Amino acid sequence: MNRYAALLRGIAPSNPSMSNAKVRGVFEGLGFEGVASVVASGNIVFRAPDGEIDELESRIQAALNRELGIPGGTIVRSHGELRALLDSDPFPGLTHGRGTYLIATFVKDSAGVTVREPEVEDPRTRVVGYDEAARAFLAIVDNSEEGKTPNFMAWLERTYGKNITTRTWLTVQRIVKKMES
Q1: Organism's domain of life (predicted)?
Q2: Is the pTM value of this prediction over 0.85?
Q3: Kind plus residue range of the DSSP H or E element containing 172
């Protein structure tokens, strides 16, 4: 059995159909073990037999759609991938906060992904890089202006489509901690 994290896109915790308990129930119904939620925004950790990530993503997404009407956006990463990402320390000396909003944007299918810098300068964002093993863009965002989405986030979706999902670095740390407990 391997440990995995499902990073779900489009989860609205206020929607009763998308409660942590119901989402966990879908994972348990698929026969996964050690199913647990991390934060109320679509992060589920679980154990499953070793297999292909894309097969896990497809099974989970089909079940979420069929049972809860959740339309899309399941990205799965193994414990090893996420642990290695944390251990790489891409944000040395920084802590997550308003002026240093540390983010990781995970790409579902990196096949054919050409990593490139954003075309438009965004004074509120500094791209740190792309972690190939975790298939994640890493950036530091000044998120002090409420209600304004950085150009970088819009650029990511325009460039890579909706098969991406972003988590704060703090959430990634919490996911890995839950996977290890």
Answers
A1: Bacteria
A2: yes
A3: helix 169-180
